[in-house]
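General statements about sequence and structure are easier to judge against a single worked case. For one protein, we set the task of working out the structure tokens from the amino acid sequence alone. The sequence in question and its structure tokens are set out directly beneath this paragraph.
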Amino acid sequence: MNRISAVLSGPVAGRSARFAFVVLLFVLPFVQPPDRNFQLTMVFVYSVAILGLTVLTGASGQISLAQATFLGIGAYCAGVPTVVWKWPLWAGLVAAAVVPFVVGYLVGVLAARLNGLYLALVTVTIAIVFIPLVKRFDGLTGGANGLVVPQPQPPAGLGLATDQWHYLIVLVLTLACWRIGRGILGGRVGRALYASQDNALVAVAMGVDVPFVKATAFAWCGGLAGVAGGMYVIAVGFLSPESFSLLLSVGLLAGMAVGGVGRAVGAVLGAVYIQFVPVYTQEISSSLAGIIYGASLILVILLLPGGLASVPRLLRMDVRASRTDIRPPAGERPREAVDV
């Protein structure tokens, strides 16, 4: 029995569960209505953007309020070449990953000299400047009127609906980003990031180039958000400057906190939260939707400091605690119940 329990809780069971979950994700678009497919597609988009914050904030301890800006840069880098210069969409997706990666690294070089409030102010400034800057170049970006981007159409003969095709493309890109994110957090880069966050002096003594590592964290954060922006173009097909506001950056940070800071799986849980909870709170009461959403956010943070990703670990701890309870041998009453 102990061997069976060990197998069920071991790495083989974990890989099997992940494989079954991925298979389920590929099946879902064929058994759901189009509106739910779109909602889940946006969950994938937000999860990749939050994954970038997980690398930045969860691993290196830096904070950014410009994640929506990086997402917007990626979206316009994918959309503008496709519309204006007639690039193929895949080339726009490459630009959506590369340009925010480079911009993120440049911001990271500056951020390596700042901490706390000053770093937050710099990223807020970037977020505030982005929208007027996009409106300024209306010849390329469409300005305040927005930009309509042709969405990819499903190949003839596959029998796929447009929403299913978009869902599958974004899902494949999401899985690739998740592979990259897990590799960063679990590899040498991740160990260097955690070391620089825990104790910078010790990290330097161990040979870690802390400023370079912090700049790299911003670069990966921007690159992942840029890919999420390209996925946004596929899912929505319309770009508006107001879609990438500071409010979205705060929402992505809230999603990371709810899902679990520093936990890759927390990015998915946080994305599900920020996508679906506002919808359900709106159904409960349209006038109190914001209050209910904020209250639920505070409750999750207070009751689960480790985020929703910590729930399985807490449940395992409860099970282990119940198994290790001291119980009297069979046939023997507890000492308090022994007759005097």
Remarks:
- The mean pLDDT is 85.
- Residues 34-60 form the longest helix (27 residues).
